[in-house]
Amino acid sequence: MSAATASRIRARTSLSPAAAGLAGASVIALWLAADAGVKGPAAVPDTLRALLAALVLFGVCGYAPARLLTPPAMRGHLVLLMPLFGSAVSAFALTTLGFLHVGLDISVAVVLVVGVASGALVRWRHGPARASEAALEEAGPVGLRVWWPAFAAALVVAVALIPTMRNGYATVVGQNGDAELAVGVAELLQEAPPDQVREDLPLDRMPGVWRSKYPIYYAFAGVTRLSGLEPYQVFATQMAVLLGLVGIALFLFARVALRAGPAASLTVLALVPLDRILMHVAIHPFHNQIWGMLSLPLILLFGFAHLREPSRQTAGALALFGALGLFAYPLMLWMPALALAVGAVVIARARRAAGEPLRWVSALGLPRRRLSGLIWVGIGVLAVPFVLVLLLGVYEKTSAALEAIGPMSNLEPWRGAEGFLPFPQFFGIPGDSVPSHLAAFAVLACGGLALRRRPREIALGLGALGIVALAVAGYFRARTYGDLFFFKDLGFFGPLALMAAVVGLAETARDHVRRAGRIAAAVALAALAGACIAGSRPEIADTYDLLNRDLLELRVWSDELPRQGSIRLDLEPDGYQLWARHMLHEHPLTSLTPLYGTIFPHPPQGRKADYLLGYSDRRPPDDAQGRPLFENGSYSLYEMDPTVPGPDISSRRLIDSSSAILE
Q: Distance between CA atoms of 122 and 63, rounded to whole angstroms?
């Protein structure tokens, strides 16, 4: 039998279970949509515009860096790496131009033109993107390295968009007030450079709490501008795209770093993003966290690759995704730093015992000192406009977190809105019962056993990460108001543990020497998949529009009022007040109960105004005069009694009362 024939047989053998599994995943996705109540395609046009804008921006910006920074062993996966590189490169490119006061319209055009030109130049100088036979053999046939992963990622995106499809229009979904800030920042960056205060916009300046996060918000603003939609119409789609990219990043880490088989890696891509916690992060939505989750497996992937086979490519990719993680979510970086540090120690000991050099620095081929100094001076001059601002935000965020986590500190200002989420949910297991906890520990055990078959540096590195992450989670679970840190810690570690467990069960189901062992592993994997779907089902079914039609109608009311007419917001201090303020931003605003002591900028606290906004299902506020001027199913807008005492301190300038750089 020839090598080509053997390769075709292996391809058919691998493709058959992959095709069957993804066909089943498609049926499950359709069932989840029907179960959630999706009726028709009304939201499809705007969703497709946002989806295409994200794919164009990330794809165009990703080809050249993926060609230049992908090491030879990974070039079989170049197509999947392109949008991952493009998401990071477009974010940093748009940020650089923004800090240089280049308008976003011009910035997006420049980034796209440079992306196309650099891609053409790279292709002209290096030829077509062809991987070596060894790399292609390792990656598998084109179906397993491109088409089936792309299809699985598309399914993940489609499932994450089910709440939007059910609503029938593109808007912000979930129950996270951070979404209003995210949309406001995107609107701000579309119209103004970072150092400007614009009281004519819904958010007048970048919140101090997010000072390090300009790159990910410039990416959001860039996708929005390219789509021609408003940021609130793009947000849910971009979050779904990012969840799909998280799935691809986990697939690549499983396939390349963990050396998992194609079927096991595809199972990771199709299943882990549908875990309830990742779905919760995507659709509620936690914008900063999902960017951090995207960078985490990529830092690990290229970090371990550089430790094993150091090169300029691995170092460059590690630096790119490390910077993305640093600016998107600096509190996450201890995880890959710990895993890579342990891996470095393991490799260093082994190579020194064998008398081999490490080459972690020498492989970079850095220029001579004089030339190097000139290069660093040039880089420093170009970086000054924005790097110092971003690093200051990272410092403030990290120092505030370190101060908050001390055993004698008060965590009440950093408490979450939902309390402690059940521990099993972070590992794909629904419920909070004793059996649920036992099942979660079984998932952890399966993941730990799977690591025993991996390269030693990866097994020990990820093992150390897991032990410390669980210890940190236990510490914050015992702390009053430690629920936010508990959620963030396990929110990053849980998907990695679930990925390892899926790889271990899938490979055991294929390779165990005993038939009973293979059957048991297959049953366990099916049960885990069912548990993940059972957990994400209520998350999807119970997530509705946060920025609903009644809130959007407030913009129409705003246009009907005199421009200088002030409005008092008689609403509870919650996410709906944030969006009401957002929709009425063209007027001076005040509130009896603003969101003091939070990360959210808010209007001043005051009583007197020209108009007031209250709830339509409650009695009119005491200071209201006459019948409502405008009313819908949720809100009523009244004229205020002119005899109400006190000065009118309403303002379009917002108050940023955040006391720490935390989310």
A: 9
616 contacts 574 by C-beta, under 8 angstroms: no
Q: Which residues of the chain have pLDDT under 70?
A: 1-21, 366-406, 408, 410, 412-417, 513, 658-663
Identify whether residues 335 and 351 lie together within a single domain. yes
510 domain-assigned: yes
Domain boundary among 507, 541, 575: 541
Q: Which two tokens stand for residue 294?
A: 């995207």
Q: Helix 148-160 and helix 231-252: axis angle, to 10°?
A: 140
Task: Give the separation between CA 210 and CA 194, rounded to whole angstroms.
Answer: 12
SS3 content of the chain, % helix, strand, coil (to 5): 70, 5, 25
**Phi, psi for residue 383 in degrees, rounded to 5:** -85, -20
Q: State whether 186 and 276 are in the same domain.
A: yes
Strand pairing of 611-615 and 624-631? Answer: unpaired
- 635 SS3 class: strand
Domain boundary pick from 518, 541, 564: 541
**Cis peptide leading into residue 285 (ω within 30°):** yes
Number of domains in the chain: 2
Distances (CA, A) of 548 to 447, 553, 614: 41, 9, 16
- Is the sign of the CA dihedral 555, 556, 557, 563 positive or negative? positive
CA atoms within 13 A on the CB side of 103: 4
Which range of residues forms the domain containing residue 113?
3-356+377-541
What is the per-residue pLDDT for 372?
55
Q: Are residues 512 and 598 in the same domain?
A: no
What is residue 256's DSSP assignment?
I
Tokens encoding 650: 């309403």
What pLDDT is stored for residue 659 in this prediction? 46
Show the CA angle centred on residue 37, arms to residues 35 and 38, nearest 5°. 110
Residues 532 and 555 in one domain: no
